[in-house]
Amino acid sequence: MIQFPNDFLWGGAIAANQVEGSYDRDGKGLSTSDMLPSGILSPHQTREERTPGIKDLAIDFYHRYPEDIVLFKEMGFNCLRLSLAWSRIFPNGDELEPNEAGLAFYDNIFDELAKHDIQPFVTLSHYEMPYALVENYGGWGDRKLIEFFERYVTTVCERYKDKVKMWLTFNEINMSLHAPFTGVGLQEDATEQEIYQAIHHQLVANAKAVKICQRIIPDGKIGNMLLGALNYPFTCNPDDVIAAMQENNKWLFFGDVQTRGKYPGYMLRYFRENGINIKMEKGDLESIASASVDFVSFSYYASGCASADPKQKEVGNIVDSVPNPYLEKSQWGWLIDPKGLRILLNFLYDRYQKPLFIVENGLGARDELDENGEIQDDYRIAYLNDHLVQAREALADGVELMGFTSWGPIDLVANSTAELSKRYGFIYVDRHDDGTGSLARKRKKSFHWYQEVIRTQGRSLQMR
């Protein structure tokens, strides 16, 4: 049986805005995430209208990271994916000098990880940016943000070059099409013209970040990160096959630019046919062409279907899709499709021929304590077991897979809905949607299961 490689990176993934709390401590500026008290599905507030939200404290990782890292090590992690809060380091985004307290905070986290032989895997921008950049520049709609992002990336690469060797640029960069305020700092009613112009600026910034990282940290690696939203044709009708191809192209466009270094023909056609005219400056395309990422990473939670018949579409949590009658759904309505992960891994590897990394996969569910105060989350174990089995199948298919970081190894605030009741973790956090709870940590049944998976390099996984 093909096993996971000995140098495989096992761990979990968290994001600053969903775990840290302390949104206004030690010089941190407000971020776009801080302006969404009910998650990315809610209209954002102005600075004056801002009300307290569950994310203001989150799970208090800002103060409790040492004990959480101990638990991660107990599970056997050799890798932790985490993000930097841009607004901790440049509170308004356009300062010439960084906030030392913010830089020192992440120094302390990286030092704590090093004590436990856990490699940090850092996302530069995970669904947040300094809110002042939205107020003063209109978000990524203004190409001045390219310069500000360059300064931020240069600062953190220089600061952490000896501590961090694995980097990602933008988290789920393709989600800007569905949540423009979260992705590029635009109003939710922004036009396609405005969104794609902002995306162009972000793709140029991505290319510059890749070059900066490769120059400052030559022994490091930097990748992109896609929301892996593979769509199947709803039927074998060729019209449905074309519909699926076009739906997939909407998100593969980002990966194509970040790996192949140019705008693909299908996207140029889309721009022509929809009256979208991307304003580019001299050197933009050259920057993109010279900065292919070192690896491709992605999240995978569910697949979807596409149909040429618009009446088949069903409203989803964030992305609308056609329901698949062959699959079950999670408590939040997400289709559960482990074999889709194997299909996606083969698809992306065939397309890009670059190493792949599964940086998010997990099950959000309502966990209940039993009569003994324990959490028997067999549903989460089944979900992750079945997905990891399919990742192992992809390895047997010849896919080059670097690692797996489950989403939310510890309960955190859900990004889409700002709920704590939508739990992903192997570690339970005693905090609830109404803000009550002691913040105490507790190991779930899945904690011990994942510990055994890592200890055995996946040999304990069960083919079901």
Automatic annotation (TrEMBL):
NCBIfam families registered for this protein in UniProt: PRK09852.1
Secretion signal, residue range per the UniProt entry: none
Record field: transmembrane: none
Presence of keyword Phosphoprotein: no
Organism: Enterovibrio coralii
UniProt cross-references to InterPro entries, sorted A to Z: GH, GH_1_N_CS, Glyco_hydro_1, Glyco_hydro_1_AS
Name of the featured protein: 6-phospho-beta-glucosidase
PROSITE patterns from the UniProt entry: GLYCOSYL_HYDROL_F1_1, GLYCOSYL_HYDROL_F1_2
Gene Ontology CC, one term: cytosol
Any one biological process term the GO annotation gives: carbohydrate catabolic process
Pfam families per the UniProt record, alphabetical: Glyco_hydro_1
Keywords: Glycosidase, Hydrolase
Active-site residues, Swiss-Prot/TrEMBL: 360
Family label: Belongs to the glycosyl hydrolase 1 family.
Gene Ontology MF: a single term: beta-glucosidase activity
